[in-house]
From TrEMBL:
Name of the featured protein: Alpha-ketoglutarate-dependent dioxygenase AlkB
PANTHER family: ALPHA-KETOGLUTARATE-DEPENDENT DIOXYGENASE ALKB HOMOLOG 3
Gene Ontology molecular-function annotations: catalytic activity, acting on DNA; demethylase activity; dioxygenase activity; hydrolase activity; metal ion binding; oxidoreductase activity, acting on paired donors, with incorporation or reduction of molecular oxygen
Domain spans labelled Fe2OG dioxygenase: 102-199
GO BP annotation list: DNA alkylation repair
Cofactor(s) required for function per UniProt: Fe(2+)
Keyword check for DNA damage: yes
Source organism, top-level taxon: Bacteria
Family annotation (Gene3D superfamilies): Alpha-ketoglutarate-dependent dioxygenase AlkB-like
Keyword Signal listed: no
InterPro entries from the UniProt entry: AlkB-like, AlkB-like_sf, ALKBH3, Oxoglu/Fe-dep_dioxygenase_dom
Keyword terms of this UniProt record: Dioxygenase, DNA damage, DNA repair, Iron, Magnesium, Metal-binding, Oxidoreductase
Length: 201
């Protein structure tokens, strides 16, 4: 397993994709302000999924914002986007400037504490543009994030810091899984925003 910490502007994957990490994307005070703005201003709802024919509601909360009333299907459920808020549009502009990419949707996750995580998966839904960049902003509690190659099982691990930006690019979703493991000692919430390229921009 490779462990990376506070590495900027270099590919963190050994092959089959591009993973870039910018730890100080947002200054501390700005990250704090955005965190509280989103905590109070986002329409958070428990996530829903259909697994093995069963309807499941998670402890983790989610929200989806996008243009043109998009619908987004994953884990057997369909979600209809809410219109952009001014705070999200401002953050989207910052992410687009840093990544040199354009995004038209944002899926937000609220992990209330370390007892909530995410199992191994790839963001390879057919509604997303193939091999498009996903930009992930982390706010709040620092959490470990892991990648695992689908064939070799080689793993890469990094710490996602408050105010950081992670860019998943190229063919990474085709070849790598990623997960947010549970960390029971962490008692603080974490907000994760993943800016995505839905369909054709």
């Amino acid at each position: 397993m490779h462990l990376f910490q506070r590495t900027e502007s270099e590919n963190l994957l050994p092959y089959d994709g591009v993973l870039l990490y910018i730890p100080n994307f947002l200054p501390t005070e700005e990250a704090k302000d955005i965190y509280f703005s989103l905590m109070d201003g986002i329409v958070w709802k428990p996530d829903e999924a259909i697994l093995y024919g069963k309807h499941i509601t998670t402890k983790r909360s989610v929200a989806w914002y996008a243009e043109k009333g998009f619908s987004y299907r994953y884990s057997g459920t369909t979600k209809t986007a809410l219109p952009w808020s001014p705070a999200l549009l401002e953050l989207k502009t910052k992410v687009e400037f840093a990544s040199k990419e354009k995004f038209n949707s944002c899926l937000l996750n609220l992990y209330h504490d370390g007892s909530e995580g995410m199992a191994w998966h790839s963001d390879d839904e057919t509604s997303l543009r193939p091999n498009s960049t996903i930009a992930s902003v982390s706010l709040g509690a620092e959490r470990i994030f892991r990648f695992k190659h689908k064939k070799s099982n080689e793993q890469v691990e990094l710490h996602l810091e408050n105010g950081s930006l992670l860019l998943m690019k190229d063919v990474i979703q085709r070849h790598w899984l990623h997960s947010l493991p549970k960390a029971m000692k962490i008692k603080r919430p974490r907000i994760n925003l993943t800016f995505r390229q839905f369909g054709i921009i």
